[in-house]
């Protein structure tokens, strides 16, 4: 853990949260400007509502290739569950120093929208993602207690995975607005058609697989 020059004077943290791309599969981009010169571990803690989720298998693959660092609570997620059967998720996203901005940190992570209940009229469901909480973890207590307070976080400090870590949360209110994900909602009158087409596609694909097994399979 590398120390930073955390000044005693309180600084307002500027938090920017964006949902990039279009459709159900997006990228969550979090940028934080602390006004410090780097060093302490910085993370953003945000609660994901039922309408949006992080795929734990995708997250594990990204972390294996050192493309992102995050902790998902709970770490078991039903990726097939619709919005009305899903629950909130807690995400702790580790931020990296921004090479183009002194005292700035950023990170991006793929997120996905869930299907909502069909509606009577054409519409879009709004999934509101509130601004994240900014967290710091340092090797000593050089943070001003007037600006930061201890926070209970179930996530290790980078570089110290086996030792306890005290995270601190900034008391200043985040300045970014809520991010809103617009999710298309299907029409209720199309339910029968969708069920029939799904059944036909399932039967057709199963028949093709069975025919291929019978033709090219080797049976003893």
General description of the model:
This protein is of the alpha+beta class and 220 residues long. Strands 1, 2, 3, 4, 5, 6, 7, 9, 10 and 11 form a ten-stranded antiparallel beta sheet that branches. The protein has two domains: 172 residues, Immunoglobulin-like, CATH 2.60.40; 33 residues. It contains two helices and twelve strands; from the N terminus they run E-E-E-E-H-E-E-E-E-E-E-E-E-H.
Main features:
single chain, 220 residues, alpha+beta, Immunoglobulin-like, elongated, disordered N terminus
Total E-strand runs: 12
Q: What's the number of structural domains? A: 2
Quickly give the CATH architecture of the largest domain: Sandwich
**How many helices does DSSP assign?**
2
Order of helices and strands: EEEEHEEEEEEEEH
Poorly predicted residue ranges: 1-9
The computed structural class is alpha+beta
CATH class of the largest domain: Mainly Beta
Radius of gyration: 22 Å
Give the helix level as a range of percent: 10-25%
Summary?
The protein is an alpha+beta fold and 220 residues long.
């Amino acid at each position: 853990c590398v120390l930073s020059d955390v000044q005693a004077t309180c600084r307002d943290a500027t938090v920017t949260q964006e949902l990039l791309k279009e459709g159900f599969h997006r990228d969550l981009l979090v940028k934080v400007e602390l006004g410090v010169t780097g060093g302490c571990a910085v993370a953003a803690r945000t609660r994901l509502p039922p309408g949006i989720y992080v795929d734990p298998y995708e997250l594990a693959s990204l972390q294996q290739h050192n493309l992102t660092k995050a902790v998902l609570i709970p770490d078991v997620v039903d990726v097939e569950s619709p919005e009305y059967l899903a629950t909130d998720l807690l995400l702790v996203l580790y931020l990296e120093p921004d090479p183009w901005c002194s005292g700035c940190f950023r990170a991006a992570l793929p997120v996905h929208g869930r299907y909502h209940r069909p509606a009577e009229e054409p519409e879009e469901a709004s999934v509101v993602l509130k601004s994240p909480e900014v967290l710091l973890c340092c090797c000593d207590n050089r943070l001003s207690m007037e600006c930061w307070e201890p926070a209970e976080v179930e996530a290790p400090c980078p570089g110290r995975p086996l030792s306890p870590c005290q995270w601190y949360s900034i008391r200043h209110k985040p300045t970014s607005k809520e991010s809103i994900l617009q999710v298309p909602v299907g029409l209720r009158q199309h339910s029968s058609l969708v069920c029939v087409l799904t059944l036909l596609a399932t039967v057709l694909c199963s028949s093709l697989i069975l025919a291929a097994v019978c033709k090219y399979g080797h049976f003893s």
